[in-house]
Amino acid sequence: MSGHHDHHDHHDHAHGHEGHSHGGHSHDHAEGADKTRVFIAALLTGGFMVAEAIGGLVTGSLALIADAGHMLTDSIALWLAWFAFRLAERPATMRMTYGFGRVKTLVAYTNGITIFAIAVWICYEAVLRFMNPPPVLAGPMFWVAVLGLVVNIAGFLVLHGGDRNSLNMRGALVHVIGDMLGSVAAIAAAIIILLTGWTPIDPILSVLVALLILSTAWRLMKEAAHVLLEGVPANVDRDAVAKDIESGVKGVREVHHMHVWSMDGSRNMATLHACLNDGADAFGVVTAIKQRLASRHGIGHATVEVEYGACADGSAAHRH
To answer: Which region ranges are annotated with the description Disordered (predicted)?
Structure first.
């Protein structure tokens, strides 16, 4: 029995890579487009960050300095995201048998932590500025912020058409959205200071932007951590999938010891034990299970262990 299973598993791997090279062609093309989008956004963000930092120092605006600091880490984060796409293109190796696709999720998680740290720093700096407001040159601050908004909108439009299921792309988008909000806050602060002369509005608006960024960063970190911890994808109900196989695939008596996870937030995988009825064709059943998982549940790669009697892993494995 084990010989049959090993032969099938080898057979599946040989054809699985072949299928991926054909079926995954559009996926590879989309990833290539996303990589280009991130590269352009990184150039835009990095280029303007220098101008905004100088503008913030000259005008004395925390909103501009905070946004420039945010853009600095955003630029680094975008280059990291681009590098992650490059690394993910590498084929699997003897040591990295799944390839490097999960690097994108790792970068997304790192981006979330970075955004979180920036937002906390902005809040701390804002408290100091609110207690002792420095003079702010609102005129130059306004024009620097407007230019920043134009650059950030351009970056947002470049990234906006990318794959929304990719945590790496979403991490890049979160950074650019944070920059857009920072620029809007700086423009609003400049206008209020020009009209009223009330400089505390600068740190107040900076804190509001920081809080908005914090909530988005938290969601990104949570989702990336779920993937890294190999949690069941949000769009998959593991127990319902097991029941569907039991009822929909002829010859299957029971499904247990089932694990479902995602490699990078978009590619889902599974392992399971299928206990078959006596006389059932193991190869045919395994093929039917894999086809059902792919077509109905979005699980593109599955390893199925076939059993006829007792489970090789013991009775505990029978519990879902």
So the answer is: 1-30
Q: 202 with 136: CB under 8 angstroms? A: yes
Q: 215: which 2 tokens?
A: 């909530």
Query: Which three-class secondary structure state does DSSP give residue 236?
Result: coil
Q: DSSP secondary-structure letter at 250?
A: T
Report the C-alpha gap between 110 and 61 in whole angstroms: 28
Best CA proximity match to 122, nearest among 81, 61, 76, 79 = 61
Q: What confidence tens digit (pLDDT) does each residue in 144-197 have? A: 889 888 988 998 898 887 776 677 787 788 878 877 888 888 899 889 999 998
* Range 24-228 classified under CATH 1.20.1510.10: yes
Enter the pTM of the model.
Answer: 0.70
Would the pLDDT of 269 be above 90?
yes
- Burial class from Cβ neighbours inside 10 Å (0-12, 13-18, 19+) for residue 41 reads buried
Contacts of 178 (CB under 8 A, 6+ apart): 70, 74, 115, 209, 212, 213, 216
Angle among Cα 41, 47, 53 to the nearest 5 degrees reads 120
3-state helix, strand, coil in the chain (%, to 5): 70, 10, 20
Question: What is the spatial distance between Cα 116 and Cα 214, in angstroms, rounded to a whole number?
Answer: 6
Q: Which two tokens stand for residue 96?
A: 């990295």
Q: Which residues contact 64 (CB under 8 A, 6 or more apart)?
A: 52, 55, 56, 141, 144, 145, 148, 186
Helix axes 201-228, 103-131, angle to 10 degrees: 160
Report the C-alpha gap between 48 and 69 in whole angstroms.
Answer: 11
Two tokens at 220? 């990104």
The two structure tokens encoding residue 191: 């206008």
